[in-house]
Amino acid sequence: xxxxxxxxxxxxxxxxxxxxxxxxxxxxxxxxxxxxxxxxxxxxxxxxxxxxxxxxxxxxxxxxxxxxxxxxxxxxxxxxxxxxxxxxxxxxxxxxxxxxxxxxxxxxxxxxxxxxxxxxxxxxxxxxxxxxxxxxxxxxxxxxxxxxxxxxxxxxxxxxxxxxxxxxxxxxxxxxxxxxxxxxxxxxxxxxxxxxxxxxxxxxxxxxxxxxxxxxxxxxxxxx
Length: 224
What we know:
This protein is mainly beta. It is built from two helices and 14 strands, in the order βββββααβββββββββ. It folds into two domains: 43-144, Efflux pump adaptor protein, beta barrel domain (Elongation Factor Tu (Ef-tu), domain 3); 149-223, conserved putative lor/sdh protein from methanococcus maripaludis s2 fold (Beta Barrel).
């Protein structure tokens, strides 16, 4: 006796992979067989892996962007909607580390769970793809905005000295008689080149950097 079943797709989308060929026998007694894969290509999900050294500063709702290797001049933007609380290795335990692509990194993360390698946490965000330029499986370079400041005073990051127990930094400020004064400043966000000054300096004052004798404190600007 032959039995026939009509299989309906749960979503609208494009067929990106056919895993079961016509006439092939499938058995669903132990595992659910995969017939084909559908994708909604007008909106893409970007999955990025964040190392454990940086994960504490990454939160849902932060702005994220990326560029592709094929078009590094065009940047795509989105907002983080998922930041995993456990590393990817937790869902990979018991699986082999063979294979390429993302599975290769997953194998390293599995080792990290036992102290033998790095640990990575997954974060997800969506980007519109109306022109179908973005493709499944593309490698992208992701940037996440951890903080921003507009219209603030800033100094070259190279001017910052040691950080004290209270979180302040030392800077050297030339006085009118040419001598150097040591100041303690409270720093805000930084983009590595410039650092926001919350307290301890005034606009127009100069600070000593490692690259030149002195540099003026920047006026109101933007730190991404």
